[in-house]
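Why should sequence recovery work at all? Because a backbone constrains its sequence more than one might expect. Tight turns favour small or flexible residues, buried strands favour hydrophobic ones, and helices have their own preferences. The token representation captures these environments compactly. In the example below, the structure is given first.
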């Protein structure tokens, strides 16, 4: 079980408190004892409802008001590296929620902890009120996960892989066969149904992984960079599928580096930098009258003013 975050703050330091990296300004709100808060710019919008109490009792998954995902004080170190430093977010049911942040901000680590792939050092993750780390079987039933960088059984054909995921999730063979055909069609993978996944292109691999995430018709889809390497036509088709899924009552969390895509596709967004939430809310709240990209740069910084070295500019 993961340590709960007590109301008075973070539990006692783990055995060897990490020496605070020099660039970390001292901060009492750091999630990892001995480590300190990153010097992030002021939060544009209070981190999405993070302070709200979870409705009690947690009861049925459909209880209105229960967030599709609630993460509280998630934190993780890799050796000396603080990857995630106390992230709390509340993702409302029926939302299309974007997660953005610079490279290395902690998005994948956060999503991995929230979906049961990586054990948090601190914090909790609830899926429709079900604790992912206390009741993983029930929680995972509710989630379809497209994880970044996780190996697949790529010596199966695309059709076999999706079928395998469907059967693993407990569906009967007939339902699995119907849904597999539907998904391969929706994702334009019929021609490659009998090709080994190891021989798929990067974009095809993303699409077959998405099919695997969807076959059990989960209530929540967590998609880590689903459009990476996917061609524009397929991406537009996938967006349509996801919008239909949300319109039907599903919830999507999507991490992406495309601000334009997030702005057009999502209704909520959280900006993460250096393992912390720096802004969260509806897309309109976060962009605050600006474009999401401009707001992102404002919040996260890191733009270089110079044009690059002379040797790259003198041909
Ligand atoms: N298994 C690991 N071992 C050591 N360090 C790790 C590991 N996984 C992630 N990190 C580090 O944790 C930090 C956060 O990584 P993470 O992959 O969560 O970032 P991200 O926001 O998803 O980045 P990107 O946008 O580049 O995919 C990075 O500094 C990364 O180097």
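From this structural description, the recovered sequence reads:
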């Amino acid at each position: 079980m993961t340590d709960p975050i007590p109301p008075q703050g973070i539990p006692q330091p783990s055995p060897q408190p990490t020496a605070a990296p020099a660039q970390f300004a001292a901060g009492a709100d750091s999630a990892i004892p001995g480590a300190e808060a990153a010097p992030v710019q002021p939060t544009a919008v209070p981190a999405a409802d993070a302070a709200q109490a979870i409705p009690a009792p947690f009861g049925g998954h459909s209880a209105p008001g229960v967030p599709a995902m609630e993460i509280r004080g998630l934190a993780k170190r890799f050796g000396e590296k603080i990857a995630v430093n106390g992230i709390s977010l509340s993702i409302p049911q029926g939302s299309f929620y974007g997660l953005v942040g610079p490279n290395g901000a902690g998005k994948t680590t956060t999503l991995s902890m929230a979906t049961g792939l990586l054990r948090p050092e601190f914090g909790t993750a609830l899926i429709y009120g079900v604790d992912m780390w206390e009741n993983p079987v029930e929680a995972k039933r509710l989630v379809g996960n497209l994880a970044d960088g996780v190996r697949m059984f790529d010596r199966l054909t695309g059709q076999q892989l999706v079928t395998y995921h469907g059967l693993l999730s407990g569906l009967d063979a007939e339902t699995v066969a119907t849904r597999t055909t539907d998904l391969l069609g929706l994702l334009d993978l019929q021609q490659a149904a009998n090709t080994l996944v190891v021989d798929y292109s990067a974009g095809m691999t993303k699409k077959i992984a998405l099919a695997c995430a969807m076959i059990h018709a989960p209530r929540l889809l967590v998609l880590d960079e689903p459009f990476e390497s996917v061609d524009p036509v397929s991406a537009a088709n996938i967006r349509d599928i996801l919008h239909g899924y949300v319109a039907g009552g599903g919830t999507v969390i999507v991490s992406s580096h495309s601000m334009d895509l997030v702005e057009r596709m999502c209704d909520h967004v959280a900006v993460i930098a250096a393992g912390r939430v720096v802004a969260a809310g509806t897309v309109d709240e976060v962009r605050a009258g600006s474009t999401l990209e401009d707001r992102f740069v404002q919040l996260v910084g890191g733009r270089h003013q110079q044009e690059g070295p002379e040797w790259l500019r003198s041909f």
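A few observations help interpret the result. The pocket of adenosine-5'-triphosphate is lined by residues 78, 81, 83, 101, 103-109 (CB under 6 Å).
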